[in-house]
Design brief:
It is built from nine helices and 13 strands. The protein is α+β, with helices and mostly antiparallel strands.
């Protein structure tokens, strides 16, 4: 959900993502600490889509390339609320720190890469060094530095004793113009005393969390949108991946009697028989030039 604050240039966005992160955990087979890091980035990407036009192909991609054991996390969210992603090393679980999953330890230092594709011209790319590794502060740092949007961000994922996602959520409040220092101080005080955003989201829902965050001013212009874990893979996309390999690689696959293409996001496997590889080779040969390179 998103809304505006009354009488001050602030906009709030909140997402409740237990179902999304649980689906992601299942698809990527993440262990608890990796689940928390992955879920935070998924929530962050969904929050970022609030800057895009609803019901359009516009999308935001967040990629964390890091020195910690998780190595790399990727999340891609679309303006209509679909999100997907992957973790290079999903089997990361570290000892908790002060009762919380050690996301900072799993991520370590590294770089946050942001891509915004508005469907017009080349996508916008930006990269900044991680300042925290907790991901919420890193995202706020990106918004302030690269998009000149002073922001406060909270991201959280809680897992149960079996590793399943118990709650997940994110909250973003950012400026949309000049904001008096006293109002910024109120906002900082609220985020400083927030505690577990995932627990608060499970208790109050995204609207309740936003109403609480913007209570000093009130809120209006509410917009609600469903979010879901959804992969865009298909057999046709898998065919395109194989064709892009070129003639020589396809010949090697032919000698192997066929191949399988596995989606990096959802894990779905598409099998291609020897006969189907032959068909792909013929398609390459029938193209203008016929070189298949």
């Amino acid at each position: 959900m998103r809304c505006l604050a009354r009488g001050v240039n602030l906009r709030g966005v909140a997402v409740e993502g237990r179902g999304v992160v649980e689906a992601a955990r299942t698809a990527q087979d993440t262990w608890p600490t990796a689940t928390a890091a992955f879920g935070r980035l998924l929530m962050g990407a969904l929050l970022m889509t609030a800057f895009l036009e609803d019901d359009t192909p516009q999308r935001v991609s967040l990629q964390v390339v890091c020195k910690g054991p998780i190595q790399e996390i990727f999340a891609e969210a679309h303006a209509h609320g679909a999100v997907r992603g992957y973790v290079v090393n999903p089997h990361v679980h570290l000892e908790p720190v002060e009762g919380k999953l050690d996301v900072k330890g799993a991520v370590g230092g590294g770089t946050l890469h942001v891509v915004k594709d508005l469907g017009i011209g080349e996508p916008y790319h930006s990269s900044i060094p991680l300042v925290s590794g907790e991901l919420a502060l890193d995202l706020a740092h990106y918004l302030a530095r690269s998009e000149q949007l002073p922001s406060a961000v909270a991201l959280g994922v809680k897992v149960d004793s079996e590793g399943r996602v118990e709650s997940a959520g994110g909250l973003l409040v950012h400026t949309v113009g000049e904001v008096p220092d006293r109002d910024l101080a109120r906002l900082e005080e609220y985020f400083g005393s927030l505690g577990s955003i995932s627990g608060l989201m499970a208790e109050k829902g995204p609207r309740g969390v936003l109403e609480e965050a913007l209570a000093p001013w009130g809120s209006y212009a509410w917009v609600e949108r469903a979010v879901e874990w959804r992969c865009r893979c298909s057999r046709e996309r898998a065919r395109g991946t194989l064709i892009a390999l070129g003639r020589e690689d396809l010949k090697r696959l032919l000698e192997q009697g066929g191949t399988r293409v596995e989606c990096r996001f959802c894990g779905k496997v598409y099998g291609f028989s020897r006969e189907e590889i032959l068909t792909l080779l013929k398609e390459l040969e029938d193209r203008p030039g016929g070189c298949g390179k």
